[in-house]
Amino acid sequence: QWAEPRVCSRRYLKVDFADIGWNEWIILPKSFDAYYCAGVCEFPMPKIVRPSNHATIQSIVRAVGIVPGIPEPCCVPDKMNSLGVLFLDENRNVVLKVYPNMSVETCACR
Amino acid sequence: AHTSPFGPSRGSCHLATTQSSHAITGATRQADMVAAHMLRLYEKYSRRGARPGGGNTVRSFRARLEMVDQKAVYFFNLTSMQDSEMILSATFHFYSEPRWPRAREVPCKQWAKNVSCRLLPAGLPTHQQLLFRSLSQNTATQGLLRGADGELLLSAQLDSGEKAPGVPSPSPHAPYILIYADDLAISEPNSVAVTLQRYDPFQAGDPEPGAAPNSSADPRVRRATQATGPLQANELPGLDERPAHAPHAQHYHKHELWPGPFRTLKPRPGRKDRRKKGQDVFMASSRVLDFDEKTMQKARRK
After folding, report:
1. Which residues contact A30 (CB under 8 A, 6 or more apart)?
2. Cα→Cα distances B137→B132, B146, B158, Å
3. B122 lies within 8 A of chain A by CB
4. Across the interface, which of B35, B51, B295 has its CB nearest the CB of A94?
5. Long-range Cβ contacts of B266-272 (<8 Å, 24+ apart)
6. Is B15 helix (H, G, I), strand (E, B) or coil?
7. Which pLDDT score, from 0 to 100, does residue B125 have?
């Protein structure tokens, strides 16, 4: 993904349950778009990386260098979406569960 | 409607009886009704933000038919329900063969062209009663039994009032129960692995029955040390080694944050650094072991 921007942003990731060995009991979906966050949160942070106030302050403190060892804010998921999963439980009953925070909608520097 | 068989701690439970048989088409009759129903629910609730029955979980339970006192009793094994799942409602689904004579068509008369021809049933359908039986008289546990292996069983009996109803033949239309619940633990960290990961990727020895067949059958050596409390709590190990006399317990000083195991992971000092051995000895005796002395001097000058 060389063409991806260097700055913190959402990147595409499709997860196939067969790849992680869960396809034996997960009926649906077979795969889903999970996405992930990657990129730098370097000073100065643009609005597009949706920095929290704390991240802005941390970024400034790091840039000024007055306190040693302060890292850049982290590029992490901000808004996330749930995912309904149809699967078989241990007794082979069909179960539907709606799991929260399963795919990334937006990323942010936090 | 039926009173809650799960007791007040599980939340209110409205058990509705539904005759779904008449909506079944010939094609779906052959299919597994439970799976088909759950598939419909999946399609309905996989849309963003949709919540099945106001919760986040729907569990299906198939019936196991047994003859008790020459009566057909359906048993549902509810053992897989989790303590964290608060039951919101439940539905009972069964298939009932129509017992009345075939509907007859009212002949359309020539003079009544505008009147639509209707199908009129010749009689009323058989009245069905759903009975939940328990050994105890406790209404809170009505219909609930403990199996021989400690299973949580719900017994149900369909009574049509006939004197000799006979033994129902096994069919793909056996009754089933859907339980709508709110899993309070689903927002906990790692909840997806708790319910969906059927094997411990770090576990040595044979996998559990039902584990993924594509997982390696080779015995795996567990290299990790014994997991400690702080590791499981997502905290840095060794934090509890902070001196008890710290002036502010919530204020972590840098030299207090990295004790114990992390010291052994420090890279070997370079030649230049080794010349400062005497200084290191001094630092080892002080409480500012891992602090950068140069930075500290700079800070003092400032």
Report:
1. A16, A17, A18, A23
2. 12, 14, 20
3. no
4. B35
5. none
6. strand
7. 58
Q: Identify all chain B residues contacting A95, using CB atoms and an 8 Å cutoff.
A: 57-60, 80
User: B145-165, pLDDT tens digit by residue?
Assistant: 777 777 788 888 887 766 655
Which member of A87, A98, A99 has the closest CB to residue B52? A98
How close does chain A come to B211, measured CA to CA in Å? 8
Pair B175, B74: CB distance under 8 Å: yes
**What is the amino acid identity at position B63?**
A
Burial class (CB in 10 A: 0-12, 13-18, 19+), B52: buried
Cβ-Cβ contacts under 8 Å, A22 against chain B: 196-198, 212
ipTM over 0.90: no
- The full length of chain B comes to 302
The tokens describing B247, both together, are 């002036």
Mean pLDDT, all residues of chain B: 62
Q: Which amino acid is at B111?
A: W
- Looking at the complex, report in whole angstroms how far the Cα of residue A53 sits from the nearest Cα belonging to chain B: 22
